[in-house]
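ok, trying the design again with the full structure, not the truncated one.
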């Protein structure tokens, strides 16, 4: 059957000579793989740019229940983005977050309107940001937690949930994480590269503690190199 949906591209992989399989998180079906035939062909009239990570699309799809890979009939930009493709700092963060979301959203099936709206609004805001970019990935990873049933109120809550005590002595780290949780994306919180590294390490440990889907994050080294 033909269905309309809003979608956010998480990643894509090449398939055969000229096609791709895109992992798209939709408001109606959650994370869904879609086949896009011929888009890598020199004769294609459509740009593969539509399927860059964090593209926000308006979709018409052929949905067949039980089929592993669905097919797209039509697609266009729902909300065009610009700087997340051209700013090296932003594109590095997108690469990192898309890798994590591919793993986190794997089990999120069926209608996902609230989570979809959070992702869409976060991406639009990121595209428009011109300050506090270096803390965006921390904001994102902490702000998505309530939608996954893992929300915490502050840095100490993060520690308590993992039954850790030794980090309580690092008041600067806990204060930084608490500010990230309670402040908006665009708020200037400060912090240096070392503090952000420690905060990210703590947040990723939290994900590892409460989920079994994160595993090794290959883009982490690139992220640290850009924001060190």
């Amino acid at each position: 059957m033909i269905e309309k949906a809003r979608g956010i591209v998480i990643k894509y992989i090449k398939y055969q000579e000229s096609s791709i399989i895109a992992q798209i998180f939709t408001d109606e079906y959650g994370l869904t793989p879609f086949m896009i035939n011929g888009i890598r062909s020199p004769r294609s009239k459509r740009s593969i740019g539509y399927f860059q990570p964090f593209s926000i699309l308006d979709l018409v799809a052929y949905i067949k229940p039980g089929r592993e890979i669905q097919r797209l009939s039509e697609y266009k930009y729902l909300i065009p983005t610009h700087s997340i493709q051209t700013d090296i700092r932003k594109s590095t963060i997108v690469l990192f977050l898309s890798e994590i979301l591919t793993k986190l959203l794997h089990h999120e099936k069926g209608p996902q309107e609230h989570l979809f709206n959070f992702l869409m609004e976060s991406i639009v805001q990121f595209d428009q940001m011109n300050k506090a970019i270096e803390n965006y990935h921390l904001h994102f990873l902490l702000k998505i937690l309530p939608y996954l049933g893992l929300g915490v109120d502050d840095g100490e809550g993060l520690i308590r949930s993992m039954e850790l005590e030794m980090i309580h002595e690092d008041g600067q780290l806990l204060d930084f994480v608490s500010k990230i949780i309670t402040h908006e994306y665009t708020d200037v919180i400060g912090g240096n590269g070392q503090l952000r590294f420690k905060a990210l390490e703590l947040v990723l440990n939290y994900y590892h503690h409460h989920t079994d889907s994160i595993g090794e994050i290959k883009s982490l080294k690139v992220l640290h190199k850009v924001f060190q």
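Keeping the full-length input from now on. Residues 83-227 form one domain.
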